[in-house]
């Protein structure tokens, strides 16, 4: 693979970062994953807007413009012949010389890394026809989940816990209510109404979430933004999650209890179709 590091394109084997980098030492970095379909970027502007917000919240300086980001993304797609998959982008606070809790002095350049991840068959994933199974785990993450940082250890632990039980993913639960999935936003459907937690610092503001809700609204579907419980999900007609790389994914089991018929629901299937076709149409 050819990757991008701090202004240069190079073979991945040559892309190295300092052991003093704050991303490495303190998890002091933000990221985005933009999906590529048919060799083009989906939801590009949404991801770049969220990136700018994450950087601002953490006061990480980075003056790369939207158009420059676009050029870098497109060049990596071209250099790697990427058709379907994603582009991972990470910005850390940079190499600060020695370990220190304080932010480095102004002018310390951030470390900027981008690379492609090829995932042929992403848009025709057979998992979407079967639906996936989730377990619930307590949400023990910090309370700025609206910032997309690389501090993903707890999400990783949750996914491993699910795997150990032979399931596909985990939902986080806090104060009795589902916050979100380990790497996605989640939804239930009851009597035709789509229910999903409202935006706050408790969840990541999913780019896919925002588009899917807009599409659902345009398709005259009813939406209620509020928290829901595991018991409600188990008694729902259907459940699903959204994320940039899985689009709309039906969920057929929550903590060992089948949701609805135990098969992917019609709302999830319809939204998945709409979302993928609209994403292809608007990809750049
Ligand atoms: N919530 C969490 C914790 C995530 O990690 C992600 C994606 O990585 C999402 C939600 C979904 O966000 P998006 O639709 O922008 O991919």
Q: Which strand-content bin applies to the residues?
A: 25-35%
Overall 3D form: globular
The number of domains:
2
Helix content: 25-40%
What is the CATH architecture descriptor of the largest domain? Alpha-Beta Barrel
CATH H level, superfamily name of the largest domain: D-amino Acid Aminotransferase, subunit A, domain 2
Q: Write down the CATH class of the largest domain.
A: Alpha Beta
GO molecular function: L-isoleucine-2-oxoglutarate transaminase activity; L-leucine-2-oxoglutarate transaminase activity; L-valine-2-oxoglutarate transaminase activity
Protein name: Probable branched-chain-amino-acid aminotransferase
EC number: 2.6.1.42
Enzyme class: transferase
Task: Supply database-style keywords.
15 strands; 284 residues; D-amino Acid Aminotransferase, Chain A, domain 2; alpha+beta; binds pyridoxal-5'-phosphate; nine-stranded mixed beta sheet; D-amino Acid Aminotransferase, Chain A, domain 1; single chain; 2 domains; 30% helix
Written overview of the protein:
With 284 residues, this protein is of the alpha+beta class. It has 2 domains: 2-120, D-amino Acid Aminotransferase, Chain A, domain 1 (2-Layer Sandwich), CATH 3.30.470.10; 127-282, D-amino Acid Aminotransferase, Chain A, domain 2, CATH 3.20.10.10. It is 30% helix and 29% strand. The protein has 8 helices and 15 strands. The chain has helices at residues 22-26, 44-58, 66-80, 127-130, 153-164, 207-218, 230-234, 266-282, and strands at residues 2-5, 8-11, 29-37, 40-41, 85-92, 111-118, 132-138, 169-174, 177-181, 185-190, 193-196, 222-225, 238-243, 247-254, 257-258. Strands 7, 8, 9, 10, 11, 12, 13, 14 and 15 form a 9-stranded mixed β-sheet that branches. Helix 6 links the parallel strand 11 and strand 12 (222-225). The mean pLDDT is 97. Pyridoxal-5'-phosphate binds at residues 180, 183-185, 204, 206-209, 242-244. Its EC number is 2.6.1.42. It comes from Antarcticimicrobium sediminis.
